[in-house]
């Protein structure tokens, strides 16, 4: 079945089986292996991608359901080799150890980051409640998010706006 | 958990309701899909193997929130995140909006739909319990037209509802909250957002003197199907509700429930959790302060 999706600003068209999960489409059809697959039934959040501006689990969605829509994966975060503000903050605050869950965390956080809002620690924990990390104990992740959101809010207040992944190809 | 990949199936994205009826008529093993947040994991675990998936996602007829003087109608495709934030729902059915915040995690609430959760009929889910408490009406639709089923007649057994073959859930209708309405919600899970070990959704009406005119409590994970706590209405009617009354009524309701043991614990443990959640939801509804 023909499926056309814009991923990280680039249009892809593939003929896939209806049963193909979006996570497998991203990894196996497009070769974008930054999206990690953990539990594969909607529990761990590792495979989170941004669908039309909202974080969703790519393992809990069929590729054919994404026809005509826009997706951003972790590969879409950096800009000309420059790390995204979220990535810089995770590096600075030791927000990862093995890194398996990190793409899922980053993509869950991207829409919040783009809003340019500051969040309290409890609010951050609610945002990331659907993502499991087995290394950090979450404290450094919360600190990373705090740093990234504070930076994004500073930029928004100074009128510059935070980093945004480019996503300008037309789906239709 | 033995997770694999979904088994093969055909897929059709319905452009209109006739496409749905034609597909369901042509294939008795067809299933409808909307957000897929329950169905796709079931496919991946191979607990379900439909021959055909009919995607309802593009059907405008199943979307939208309409508010009249006495009835709030919510289209089946309304996503959990929309139930959580929609101003009309928050004003007319605050219990349902609160219940939405307890459904899974943000990523799932961005895809899952109210109608999908209701039609799935999981007794541990938040929306069925809230809709029972709210005395909702389910609007089923088929080629023959619409059929209305009271929430109390809708949930029949394990993942089994009153929807007939060839029928889909089109919308739910709720009575609009009044100034006399009050509500409470409590749920316990190991991690917030996981399936409930126990929970309760309470909707009540109070008279001007503070006495209880009516009360209903939908329970989470209390039996094979979503169900109401038994015996509440008669015990509370016309009385000013205090902690002592709640304690007695909850004990009587628990004596009539048999949740059974499951992966979360023994039957006794689960009964204790359900009872405690019911006590908390009632105390919250009748503004008896925080329970430790």
What characteristics describe this protein?
heterodimer; A: 172 residues; alpha+beta; Ubiquitin-like (UB roll); DNA polymerase, domain 1; 2 domains; 5-stranded mixed β-sheet; 5 strands; 33% helix; 14% strand; B: 292 residues; Uridine Diphospho-n-acetylenolpyruvylglucosamine Reductase, domain 2; Uridine Diphospho-n-acetylenolpyruvylglucosamine Reductase, domain 3; Enolase-like, domain 1; 3 domains; 5-stranded antiparallel β-sheet; 14 strands
**Averaged pLDDT of chain A, please?**
93
Strand order of the largest sheet of chain B: 4-5-10-6-7
CATH topology of the largest domain in chain A: Ubiquitin-like (UB roll)
Number of helices of chain A: 5
Strand content of chain B: 25-35%
CATH class of the largest domain in chain A: Alpha Beta
What count of helical segments of chain B does DSSP give?
12
The number of distinct structural domains of chain B comes to: 3
What oligomeric state best describes the polypeptide chains here? heterodimer
Q: Structural class per helix/strand content of chain B? A: alpha+beta
- Give the CA-based shape of chain A: globular
Distance between the termini of chain A: 17 Å
Shape of chain B: globular
Largest interface: A-B, 30 and 31 residues
Largest sheet of chain B: 5 strands, antiparallel
Q: Please tell me the CATH architecture of the largest domain in chain B by its name.
A: 2-Layer Sandwich
H-E order of chain A:
EEHEEEHHHH
DSSP E strands of chain A, number: 5
Separation of the first and last Cα atoms of chain B: 36 Å
Instruction: Tally the structural domains of chain A.
Output: 2
CATH topology-level name of the largest domain in chain B: Uridine Diphospho-n-acetylenolpyruvylglucosamine Reductase, domain 3
């Amino acid at each position: 079945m023909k499926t056309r999706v814009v991923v990280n600003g680039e249009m892809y068209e593939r003929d896939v089986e209806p049963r193909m999960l979006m996570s497998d489409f991203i990894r196996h059809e497009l070769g974008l292996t930054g999206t990690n697959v953990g539990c594969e039934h909607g529990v761990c959040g590792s495979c989170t991608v941004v669908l039309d501006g909202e974080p969703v689990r790519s393992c809990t969605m069929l590729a054919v359901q994404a026809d005509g829509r826009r997706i951003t994966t972790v590969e879409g975060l950096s800009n000309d080799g420059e790390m995204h503000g979220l990535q810089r903050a995770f590096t600075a605050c030791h927000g990862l150890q093995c890194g398996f869950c990190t793409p899922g965390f980053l993509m869950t956080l991207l829409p919040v980051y783009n809003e340019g809002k500051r969040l309290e620690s409890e609010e951050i924990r609610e945002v990331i409640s659907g993502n499991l990390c087995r290394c950090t104990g979450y404290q450094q992740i919360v600190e990373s998010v705090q740093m990234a959101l504070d930076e994004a809010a500073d930029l928004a207040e100074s009128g510059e706006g935070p980093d945004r992944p480019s996503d300008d190809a037309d789906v239709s | 958990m033995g997770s694999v990949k979904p088994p093969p199936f055909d897929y059709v994205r319905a452009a209109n309701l006739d496409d749905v009826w034609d597909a369901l008529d042509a294939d008795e093993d067809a299933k409808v899909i909307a957000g897929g947040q329950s169905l796709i994991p079931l496919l991946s675990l191979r607990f379900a193997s439909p021959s055909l998936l009919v995607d309802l996602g593009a059907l405008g007829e199943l979307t939208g929130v309409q508010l009249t003087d006495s009835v709030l109608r919510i289209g089946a495709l309304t996503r959990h995140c929309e139930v959580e934030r929609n101003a009309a729902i928050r004003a007319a059915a605050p219990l349902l909006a609160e219940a939405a915040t307890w459904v899974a995690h943000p990523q799932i609430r961005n895809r899952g739909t109210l109608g999908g959760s209701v039609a799935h009929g999981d007794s541990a889910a938040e929306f069925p319990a809230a809709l029972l408490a709210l005395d909702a009406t389910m609007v089923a639709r088929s080629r023959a037209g619409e059929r209305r089923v009271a929430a109390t007649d809708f949930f029949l057994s394990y993942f089994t509802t009153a929807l007939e073959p060839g029928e889909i859930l089109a919308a739910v209708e709720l009575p609009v909250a009044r100034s006399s309405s009050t509500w409470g919600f409590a749920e316990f899970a190991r991690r917030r957002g996981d399936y409930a070990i126990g929970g309760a959704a309470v909707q009540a009406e109070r008279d001007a003197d503070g006495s209880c005119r009516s009360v209903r409590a939908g329970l989470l994970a209390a039996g094979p199907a979503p169900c109401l706590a038994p015996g509440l209405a008669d015990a509370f009617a016309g009385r000013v509700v205090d902690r002592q009354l709640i304690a007695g009524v909850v004990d009587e309701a628990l004596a009539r429930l048999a949740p059974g043991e499951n992966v979360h614990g023994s039957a006794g443990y689960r009964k204790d959790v359900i009872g405690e959640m019911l006590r908390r939801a009632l105390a919250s509804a009748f503004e008896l302060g925080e329970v430790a």
